[in-house]
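Why show two proteins at once? Because comparison is the fastest way to build intuition. When a single record is shown, students tend to memorize it. When two are placed side by side, the eye starts asking what differs. So, the first record is below.
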Amino acid sequence: VNVIATAPGTVRGVRDGMADILQTAENAPDVTSKECGNGVVVSHGDGWETQYCHLAVGSVAVEAGDRVAIGTILGQVGLSGQTQFPHLHLSVRHNGNVIDPFDPDGAITCGEPSETKLWSDAIDAPAGGLITAGFAAGVPEYSAVKAGSAHGTTLSSSDDLVVWGYVFGGRVGDEIILKIDGPNDQIINQTVVLERNQAQLFRATGRRAPQSGWPVGNYLGDIQMIRDEMLIDTATTTVEIR
């Protein structure tokens, strides 16, 4: 995913060359004083600047001194620096002070959204949703789900069959529906109700392989996120049983 400049300006500094590694991984490097990872800082004049952190190694596309316009590609989303999952950390500063672009004047109070925002187009925060889904031969480790390595594209007929969904913005009472459809019929349809608010989570369900093994063919996983009887998001995934 490309990271683009949010406003015109001049590149004040860049860093590249830091590896894309989860900080929970055993081989994670020490990122003290380099928590931003690979990044770009753009000066916009009058004391305003933006900083773009955790870019993918080798993706930084600008150099210090370059002029950029709105939409100029600066790099790509990565996993460098102090990260637990791939994302962009965008900081907005004015005269060195961090500014909330949703509340630049600090006037927001509970129940009364600020009318002053820095976004040129209104941005509504998503209510929650599914990041990804996949199949595995057992319930995967959460670290593998976050790293993007938990999904198996092929499984053996003797493997246990598990489908999982990676969710963000989960709220108490949300329903996560997990289904597996095989070549001949539906194998599982389970609903899991969330018991607490969580910024990120994953849920999984599955079945042990029958004694005769799973029928060879393609299997479809379907994950749905329901809130107050309304569909928030859905994701599908497939696996081939050989």
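Second record. Ask yourself what differs from the first in the token line.
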Amino acid sequence: MTKTILITGTSSGYGEATAELFLAQGWNVIATMRRPEASPFEASDRLRVLPLDVTSENSIAATIEAAGPIDVLVNNAGIGAVGAFEPMSMSFVRELFETNTFGVIAMTKAVIPQMRARRSGTIVNVTSSVTLGDFPLASVYTGTKQAVEGFSASLAHELAYVGVRMKLVEPGYAPTTRFGANAIMPVDQLLPGEYADFARPILEGFARPVLTTTESDVAEAVWSAVHDTADRLRFPAGPDAIALAEAR
């Protein structure tokens, strides 16, 4: 029987690559995004593109109802933020948490009932390698992802009791993704003069990374996580994330 996967944030980057991989492997894919009219996918009888705003309870409920039974949920939707903490407004901080943390929690809550009823299913939460090390200029973004890691690690015990698996995929630094484009404030607005000298060499380092992660690295890590039948929780994705995980 063909299985169905629902992936959030599939308009580009990791989500798009993950959808393409599962489609190529014969799965039914429900690709969700805020603006379906901008879908990057070619038509397929195994692909459905649905609108979804993970910060809206009504949007989540409508998408889950339209999707029907799903075997796997991949919480990939997220927004980036690099910059000094001091100039960040609290509204900016809350917006990051609404998407990166509460959006993941809300989607997870929405699919648990059907998976519990079947006593089967897998939830994959995509976080970041910022959870594997202490990265400057990423304090709030790190907080949003660390919260998901703690939430997932604890919830994994409850879900195992009802036959549902929880997994974490931790991507490394991927300069080819739309991380910067998905940021909700330009970097230059988050780097006032007081922090410019501190930030300059860090940002220059971002521009010349030694190890990087590709979209396919993350898609393959999601594939491995979905098909893992052991109790493994964390799947670092990309050579830099793997190196950090091993060092840790």
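One difference worth noting in the second protein: The beta strands are 4-7, 28-33, 47-51, 72-75, 122-126, 165-171, 234-237.
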